[in-house]
Amino acid sequence: MGAVLIAGGAIGYNVLSTSKASGPEIAQPAGPPTIDSLKAAAEADPLNSGAWQELGFAYYETEQYDEAAKAYRQAIEGDRDNAVLWSSMGEARLLASDAVQMPGDAVSAFEKALELDPTDARARYFMAVRKDLADDHEGAIDDWLALLKDTPAGAPWEGNLIQTIEQVGKVHNISVEAKLAAVAKDRPKATEITAGNAIPGPSKEQIAAASAIAPGEQRDMAVGMVESLEGKLKANPKNPDGWVMLMRSRMTLGEPDKASKALKDSVAANPDQADRLRKEAAALGIS
After folding, report:
1. CATH 1.25.40.10 in the chain, residues?
2. Does domain 204-284 have CATH number 1.10.3210?
């Protein structure tokens, strides 16, 4: 099950950090009051997909995978055609299972995600994992290479995906170097992608600063920073860099629905920058 272990945290809304050990405290608001408040908000509006999605994300970040799966399942009730919710549920079901092989309910969730969106990165990744677990290592590597070819350069899961290909190739004595080089040559250079590194503003490190502050107060500080940025963008929406900063900050706070709204608002305000903004969003895992 090595491929699954390599994959953990690599695809989807958990793109905030590729390593839980190095992730900032605020990126995973794990305290019970925070989850309780998210749960209360979700239960108050059973068909509010965004609220249940945020609850699922919070459970995922605290490794409560069974609860995360249930929350994503309820999110689907409010948005049944959202491929990201189906693949999120599939990953949570997989991680909640003690089975050595891929559990059937996870597979069915990934299949549904791909039915809705054949490009869904997480579902594609784990269906390739399924091939690897079934001893079709060549097929799994080919599928991962196809996913890599479609992955925006600089996407948060890019490094994990390459590592998976290299490690599975090494374990099963399959040469992958030439194939990786060919994919790298064919992939377009993403010179405009700045999400997560080149735009100044409230980063994960800044949000997690002042460690002496209580976690709840840290989050209040972070929310205040992000809301201030959002207010400035409402007053001056012709600022693509600012919108990218807002999208990144919303994802850092575990608010993918608000990040998606920021994407829509940014494109509406800057139609001439729509392609760039969508690429930036894709690099952050925003749909």
Report:
1. 2-186
2. no
188 φ/ψ sector (left φ>0, alpha ψ -120 to 50, else beta): beta
**Cα 114 from Cα 110, distance rounded (Å):** 6
CA 146/CA 107 separation, integer angstroms:
19
Q: How far lies 117's CA from each of 7, 95, 96, 126, 284, in Å?
A: 20, 22, 24, 15, 18
Count CB atoms within 10 A of the CB of residue 264: 11
**What contacts 131, CB < 8 A, 6 or more positions away?**
137, 139, 140, 143
Spatial distance between the Cα atoms of 116 and 79, rounded to a whole number of angstroms: 12
- AA identity, residue 281: A
Q: Count of CB atoms within 10 A of residue 8's CB?
A: 16
Q: Residue for token digits 């090595």?
A: 2
Can you tell me the distance from the alpha carbon of 222 to that of 220, in angstroms, rounded to the nearest whole number? 5
Alpha helical stretches, state H, 151-255: 158-171, 177-186, 204-207, 215-235, 240-252
The pLDDT score that the predictor gives to residue 158 is 82
Q: Are 131 and 143 in contact (CB under 8 A)?
A: yes
Question: Both tokens of residue 185?
Answer: 């040559």
In angstroms, the CA 69 to CA 92 distance is 5
163-201 residue pLDDT tens: 999 999 999 999 999 999 999 887 755 544 444 443 344
The letter for the amino acid at 277 is L
- Indicate yes or no: pTM above 0.70: no
Q: Which pLDDT value is given to residue 233? A: 87
Q: Which fold, 2-186?
A: 1.25.40
